[in-house]
Amino acid sequence: MKKFVYSFGDGSAEGSASMKETLGGKGANLAEMCNLGLPVPPGFTITTEVCVDYYKEGKKTPAALKDQVSEALKKIEDKIGAKFGDATNPLLVSVRSGARVSMPGMMDTVLNLGLNDQTVEGLAKKSGNERFAWDSYRRFIQMYSDVVLGVDHYIFEEIIDSIKDGAGVSLDTELNINHLKELVKTFKAKVQEELGRPFPTDVNEQLWGGVMAVFDSWMSNRAIAYRKIHEIGDNWGTAVNIQSMVFGNMGDTSATGVAFTRNPSTGAKELYGEYLVNAQGEDVVAGIRTPQSITKKAREESDSDLPSMEEVMPNVYKQFIDTCKKLESHYRDMQDIEFTVQDNKLWMLQTRGGKRTAAAALKIAVDLVNEGLISQEEALKRIDPSALDQLLHPSLDPKAPKKVIAKGLPASPGAASGGAVFSAEEAEDAKARGKDVILVRIETSPEDISGMHAAKGILTARGGMTSHAAVVARGMGKCCVSGTGTLKIDYKAKQFTVGEHTVKAGDIITINGTTGEVMLGKVPTTQPNLSGDFAEVMKWADSVRTLKVRANAETSLDAETARKFGAEGIGLCRTEHMFFDQDRIISMREMILAEDEEGRRKALSKLQPMQREDFISIFNIMGDFPVTIRLLDPPLHEFLPHSEEEMAEVAKASGVNIEKLRHRAATLKESNPMLGHRGCRLGITYPEIYEMQARAIFEAARETGAKPEIMIPLVFGKKELSILKNVIDKAHKSVAPKVEYLLGTMIELPRAALKAGEIADVAEFFSFGTNDLTQTTMGISRDDSAGFIDDYKSKGIVEHDPFAVLDVEGVGELIKIAAERGRATRKDIKLGICGEHGGNPASINFCQQVGLDYVSCSPYRVPIARLAAAQAAINAKIEKKKAA
Amino acid sequence: MKKFVYSFGDGSAEGSASMKETLGGKGANLAEMCNLGLPVPPGFTITTEVCVDYYKEGKKTPAALKDQVSEALKKIEDKIGAKFGDATNPLLVSVRSGARVSMPGMMDTVLNLGLNDQTVEGLAKKSGNERFAWDSYRRFIQMYSDVVLGVDHYIFEEIIDSIKDGAGVSLDTELNINHLKELVKTFKAKVQEELGRPFPTDVNEQLWGGVMAVFDSWMSNRAIAYRKIHEIGDNWGTAVNIQSMVFGNMGDTSATGVAFTRNPSTGAKELYGEYLVNAQGEDVVAGIRTPQSITKKAREESDSDLPSMEEVMPNVYKQFIDTCKKLESHYRDMQDIEFTVQDNKLWMLQTRGGKRTAAAALKIAVDLVNEGLISQEEALKRIDPSALDQLLHPSLDPKAPKKVIAKGLPASPGAASGGAVFSAEEAEDAKARGKDVILVRIETSPEDISGMHAAKGILTARGGMTSHAAVVARGMGKCCVSGTGTLKIDYKAKQFTVGEHTVKAGDIITINGTTGEVMLGKVPTTQPNLSGDFAEVMKWADSVRTLKVRANAETSLDAETARKFGAEGIGLCRTEHMFFDQDRIISMREMILAEDEEGRRKALSKLQPMQREDFISIFNIMGDFPVTIRLLDPPLHEFLPHSEEEMAEVAKASGVNIEKLRHRAATLKESNPMLGHRGCRLGITYPEIYEMQARAIFEAARETGAKPEIMIPLVFGKKELSILKNVIDKAHKSVAPKVEYLLGTMIELPRAALKAGEIADVAEFFSFGTNDLTQTTMGISRDDSAGFIDDYKSKGIVEHDPFAVLDVEGVGELIKIAAERGRATRKDIKLGICGEHGGNPASINFCQQVGLDYVSCSPYRVPIARLAAAQAAINAKIEKKKAA
């Protein structure tokens, strides 16, 4: 017969820590603690499989369950020497849920189960403590009614408050036996009134009610929502843990508490926890009484009057400290522990890996390695790369008050405060005057780049996580909140309104790009501090990983940041960003408005020396590291003014006929610019542009000794590349024939992926432009996905925003095809990725699997990518071992 | 040694008609005529390979060529009994180019080669006709100087004119011997003056000069341009034909002429041609004298005074008629023939398949089948399906004078005249007043549909062959000229200017959608006449093809047209086109502006009965044929007004707050609508829309007994389809549970093609939306491709506009993948194509190869698709036989 129930207690258990899938995290760890010989109240775990079955079979449990539970209950009775439901010597139990991972929204705990009007008397007599017995009884009714029967808990709190008022006391512990008996009576009457049926007195009914409540809580809306967000399968199910009660509320020799074996904020090696004397578990969390420190040191540091456990119960404290050490060295990680002291005896109720901040994660990892508890690889595997982001940007002081007025998308992490400005020019002006500003735009365009540079942060009303604003801000390491749909921005009035609030130009606001919050006024921030632990972990990561990590960078500042964060080259240097500077855009527009090739060449010849200087500067910063330069990519209309007002301005400034300007702008306008006249298509129609850029690159390379990698965007076949190779080779021969260079291409269109075999005849490297490849493969414009992507996520159509996490099944198949076909033609072709996904850990793991040579991401994500690449390498090693 | 030269003459030849690749069309057919025993002046052909080598080796010919030519020349001398360059008995030759297909821009002919001051005397003596000899000499110098030496021909014409003036005569034939001698002298002096060197007197120098001139003409600009347009490989090369001269200019018993064995305009079985007495070939073409009819009947019909060849040379005529019959029955096709009569003896100079109109092609095919010359399959293979288009639309009277002021893209065939109007409303008003109008727009949008319906034709300044205007116009069978970039349209002034011309509202213009021409005034048109031959050929096609042919249709008129043209169902019924009618758009906008689902449902409930009636009408017209209905596809902003003016109008008409309207329009605005919130994404976010449409379909099906096929657009995976299947199933259960229906999806995104295996779990059919699949696979917006697609074609990056002819290598691979994976999951899944490519013959052939079940195209292309499908089936049979 199938085993649905696993018993534990008295120094042994049927389960173990390795059985989390079957027993849930809590159950597996309870079993493990028993096996370690730690004092755990005996009990048993009903497997997750029963829960899965429960839902499969229309909320029915397997027939065999009842007998197995009875048997396991019998074992507890034998161990404890008490009997469930017995009027004179009653066994009480707790019922707790326990999925593979801990999950808010699931049923937490029912304590003291097994009490009724008979057993309460038995408990009173047996314990010799009538008050304790009735306190336990009223707690049980309160908890069970709330958690299992669904009677709102505030109803009971009101009753307690009114009885306390009547008695003239303020603490629960001040209530006497009669008060408690009255509470029980009133509670039961209230339950009858609310539900139209009495509170269950049969202990078995109570037990099964508790078990079913755990199963039902698996499908509570909150649990479902949590699973959606954290990508936990609905089909995992939860286990149920039933355990004999131990009582922290048996008087002043009893207590209950929670502790971390190390400081979860800083990672310091010091016990960190709280306890309450004469209390049950929920009291610590509920905040009814002020918890006390466990260690004397902590009590002193917090300047508390309340004695520490170390001082009050030195023996138990010593035993607890030993237990903590034992658990930490057994699990080889910082533990989050729950315990109860019953009449000076310590009982362990839970242990699990403790949640921690990114800084703590680094410190603990380094310390555990130094303590010899774990290997470097193990340490690397435990750190969430994405969490490093917290360390690399300023963050809001978590203790500061704040007034959140809107919430957008957390488009680029970090936080910043400043006066609101509504145009790039104002941002630049304000910066020149030494003011901090937040640039507020409906959406940004390449023309706003200098304003974005000048601003402390960027706030937009439209656009997703990979909109222009988001991508550029991340590249700059500036915080950005995008797609804040509730914002109504009025450029003319220079203000925005959101709900009842109006923010005018100059009003100070704060944005948090890590959460998407928009706040009124200035909220204090704290600066990042890259400690020695960070550097240490990065060193380990670098020694393990096989993927190279490069950065996407186009300015000297970007390049310097990239090197600071450990980038091993530039994977994407977007040349167009160099054309938006005030002095360059004029020549660029002159080029666009030229009537013929000669006119274009004239304008380009003005841009060429500037481009050359840009490249010289970048080559010098990057030294021997490779620099991949992408030739002009965006459609030309992005460089022209859009509004009539701007048009008039530009016409005046550049002396061009406004009618001509208007006509050219109208001609260049596109319905779907993403799929328009851009990328290599510009090079095909205006070869002189790419020729100028190639010249600038070669001249810079000649001067600096760099070996540039020239990258052609948006090809869909070999021929475009061959034609443009001729253009570039011509420039090469005439400028710097002795400069070595590589020619490669972006693979960013499905057709390019399919034709990669032929393309590799010409291309010496591929760089997967996964932003555009995702847009075209899935047919989703990243700038327009806001209207439906949330629905797509909530309905399970996509697991993640495909612009944040690579769509492995679709886009990934094309990458695999391209890598295979490319390698079949050119065995040593260099393969990299330079889309936004290059900085996403899950996507980096995929890049490792496909065997790419490098990933490239925004400079501020380089450390994340380095760590993720190390994890990917470790995963690959494990997979290889498994396969062998 | 490699054979570079193939001889022919005297009833035998080294080559044959099957060797066109080596000998060119002309050379192969000359050999074939020799083999048939027809009188062909002896000669030889230098192979195309020599030309290919000539360019490979930097304009050098193979060493062995000279000897092979000498040998072949010797053979001619032996056959003729004359000697090349001999002063007393000279052999003269002609030199002609001859590629695989005939090609304008290539060197045509040099006649009389081998004459100089010595040989002309020999010719005079030998022929006993001094005038003939000197006439030949002056012709040779004139032709050779023009064609080989590059001296402009008008220089010689001026000299002839001045000598004629001096002599007081008007025809060349009136010049006497002295005049001709003087001409020769003056010509030679002129050549010396122009080139600084004398006209070559060495006959071998003459010969090789002619051969090289043929090779050089292969790379003339005109030839290159022609090959680009007609997709002829630059690497084919041309052959050179050298043939002993026969003379049509030896007096009144000599003549030269051209003829078609049937009438190339009508296809009628009657000899159709012209000849000139005492002339050489170029005289017929040059139009110096009026050519005469060959047959008496034709002479009588044309009411000519000049006698026919039948009357003047009855014996030669009879021989010629016999030869024509022989050639036609040998080649089993209508022939285009050149001949010369020398002193009452007939010589054949060329035969080839004759070009013909579409109507003639049909008649000739039917006649040849009836005459037992060819099989039905052979007849089907010979008709160019695209040419049928000429027959299905009104066309311009080719004889009418016309004033072309601009040229756009031939977006939808046919021709129409009418007053220019600049808005859809004006078009409707004008139609209501009984006026014919041409709708002139910068570009069209779905709001213009009713105006497009009302207009006779559509003219746009922007947009390609597959722009909105083009696609909709083709669907309606209306002519359309799109992308006429030179047009400057001023909506406010209600006029457009192009160059010096200004066309105001109401001015009559004519557009020719078959050529892209825009003309001032009314040019008369002729109506299509679908003759019995058309029906006959269609019947044969239907009996051969295995692909079904459906139509894309959404109105009753479309559906009726589709059936008239033989469609076997509707493959794409776009439901959104039903929402643009004046009375419906109001409810549609109400739906878009609604605050919540309830508001949307209210508006939808007004649209539902109208949709139901649409479907009832279409189901009734289509009877038992399948109808595939695509649920709402375009983004919602397409239904909102765009300009401030329209916005105000709509706000007023519908009583909506303009501020709200503006805000909603701004919120819905998209950067790349093609990749935006459209297709099934609308169904996911607003299921009530699809539910309403499904209800309307099921109610209509219940009433008519139809078995509808419901199609979901723009899925990229299985999940969207599953979710929407639930929505549709719900509507089905509540409305018409007994109505049978199929649920399927468009495959129009690369990811959908890759995930087709999973999608087929739910989808009962796939319809390849190759427009969008091409856009996403290649990353090209069809509305924005005009800026570069011509460059892409001219540089050989794409062979065709990928929106006209399916990109087999890229998009095609995805279709293959999807078909395979779909069938692997669901063996009998129905596969079709409903993009524009469904009406393109080359693409239809691909559909046959991949094994699709049907193609669907605009109603007016259904006959083309039927014929193309027949050809594809025949091709498949041949391939299968080859493979076996």
Describe the main β-sheet of chain A briefly. Answer: 8 strands, mixed
How many distinct beta strands of chain A?
Answer: 34
User: How do the strands of the widest beta sheet of chain A line up side by side?
Assistant: 15-25-24-17-18-19-20-16
Strand content of chain A: 15-25%
> What fraction, in percent, of the residue positions of chain A are helical?
40-55%
- Based on helices, strands and strand pairing, what is the structural class of chain A? alpha/beta
Number of helices in the DSSP assignment of chain A: 35
Radius of gyration of chain A, whole Å? 33 Å
Helix and strand arrangement:
The structure is a homodimer of 884-residue chains.
Chain A lengths: L4 E5 L2 E2 L6 H16 L7 E4 L1 H9 L8 H16 L2 E2 L5 E2 L1 E7 L9 E5 L5 H9 L2 H18 L5 H15 L9 H19 L7 H16 L2 H10 L7 E7 L10 E6 L11 E6 L3 H6 L5 E2 L2 H6 L7 H4 L1 H18 L3 E8 L2 E9 L4 H13 L5 H7 L6 H4 L2 E2 L6 E5 L1 E4 L2 E7 L2 H9 L4 E5 L7 H6 L2 E4 L7 H9 L2 E4 L5 E3 L4 E4 L2 E4 L3 E5 L4 E4 L4 E2 L5 H13 L3 E5 L3 H9 L5 E5 L7 H12 L3 H26 L4 E4 L13 H11 L3 H11 L11 H6 L1 H18 L4 E4 L5 H18 L6 E6 L2 H5 L1 H4 L5 E4 L1 H9 L7 H9 L16 H15 L4 E4 L7 H10 L3 E4 L4 H22 L1
Parallel strand pairs in A: 4-5, 17-18, 18-19, 19-20, 27-28, 27-34, 28-29, 29-30, 30-31, 31-32, 32-33, 33-34
Antiparallel strand pairs in A: 1-2, 1-3, 3-8, 6-7, 6-8, 9-10, 9-12, 10-11, 12-13, 14-26, 15-25, 16-20, 17-24, 21-22, 22-23, 24-25
